[in-house]
Amino acid sequence: MPSLRWKTKALAIALFGLSFSMSLAASLSNFDRITQLPGQPQVGFQHYSGYVTVDEKKQRALFYYFVEAELDPSSKPLVLWLNGGPGCSSFGVGALSENGPFRPNGEVLVRNEYSWNREANMLYLETPIGVGFSYSTVSSSYEAVNDKITARDNLVFLNRWFRKFPQYRNRSLFITGESYAGHYIPQLAELMVQFNKKEKLFNLKGMALGNPVLEFVTDFNSRAEFFWSHGLISDSTYKVFTSTCNYSRYVSEYYRGSLSPICSRVMNLVTRETSRFVDKYDVTLDVCIPSVLSQSSVLNPQQVTETIDVCVEDETVNYLNRRDVQNALHARLVGLNRWLVCSNILDYELLDLEIPTIPIVGRLIKAGIPVLVYSGDQDSVIPLTGSRTLVHGLAEELGLNTTVPYRVWFAGMQVGGWTQVYGNMLSFSTIRGASHEAPFSQPERSLVLFKAFLEGRPLPEAF
């Protein structure tokens, strides 16, 4: 039998190896730690940013921004946030305009009172390659990018990110996001579930999808009813928009370069009546809006280029194009002169838009992953009516009975929205008065929804 001395020596070697690997991981994350961003107020939490290489051969690297929870981060879950597009920045839109700890204001950053890092450790990922500060040294990497490539890259990113931050490996993990993230998130989550069958790495606890693209025809064709019910189009236009050429047909023809004369006429009629002075992402907003509100033109293609009157300076773009800010973020522009909200070098397979992801959501629920679909109720791009129809249909298909009947919920002594829960696994909620980017337009209500989602609790029934 081995001597006690040998055992002690072996244990010491093992502990040294463990200590070395932990210190190596700590040094990797410390390299990405942000000392202080220019104009940043003093805070008590740590934040990090940098790159994770997902393909060494082509030097394809994804940029991330990670902000630890304000209080007791070791007890809080990890949340991955993805913006849509495809091709828009989760850092610039999500973190700096929606639910991150800071918002640019001139030369400085100001605190966001309703930052989601009050409840979780927030990880913002600029995906796919070519978005924001994410880059490749091979320009062909930006060509023919599709949902499968994006999902695979995101999986590799998370796997390798955990090497930098091993303390989060077994943490409860939630994935959230909006718009085209209705494609990104379910496809990534399904890969994570498959990966866990070989090696248990991802402690996935749930998904929250905001105004998501889940099923092309239902989501897009709900736009006509939204326009009509909000008084944006006439009765006669509503009739032709639902019978002669609906919106899904128009988008399908547009992206195939085969726009028919009849669809062209119908869309000209719709565009004229809805007016270019109404923001389609929030029909209650006046025309003077920050340009970051537009996830992308992909979900809202125009036959004729419209000039949008942006009378509010785009603070985010100005801030992230400062050299001192980029240095503080450990970020660099590769093959670009300027940081952009949405990528102009990414050639995404736009017809992936037509592939439904609602069946994937169903498979994930069957695998035990709870799902929340939420809708800002002033968004005409992906209206709440389409999302509600899809969620209800999925509940029926899965045999999930209603566990929380359709009712109001409250935030800040006001009605925050409406909600319904099916089988304690699938939820639908609206955020009252919110746009396509709900945390931007209704930050307090969005935070209440987010907190309830993380805790698996019903939304407040009273104030």
TrEMBL record:
Localization, UniProt: Secreted
Molecular function in Gene Ontology: serine-type carboxypeptidase activity
Top EC class, one word: hydrolase
Keyword match Glycosyltransferase: no
Organism domain of life: Eukaryota
Keywords assigned: Carboxypeptidase, Disulfide bond, Glycoprotein, Hydrolase, Protease, Secreted, Signal
Cellular component terms (Gene Ontology): extracellular region
EC number per UniProt: 3.4.16.-
GO BP field: proteolysis
Signal peptide: 1-25
Keyword Disulfide bond in annotation: yes
InterPro entries: AB_hydrolase_fold, Peptidase_S10, Ser_caboxypep_his_AS, Ser_caboxypep_ser_AS
PROSITE patterns from the UniProt entry: CARBOXYPEPT_SER_HIS, CARBOXYPEPT_SER_SER
Role according to the record: Probable carboxypeptidase.
PANTHER family per the UniProt record, alphabetical: SERINE CARBOXYPEPTIDASE-LIKE 46, SERINE PROTEASE FAMILY S10 SERINE CARBOXYPEPTIDASE
Assigned protein family: Belongs to the peptidase S10 family.
Protein name, per record: Carboxypeptidase
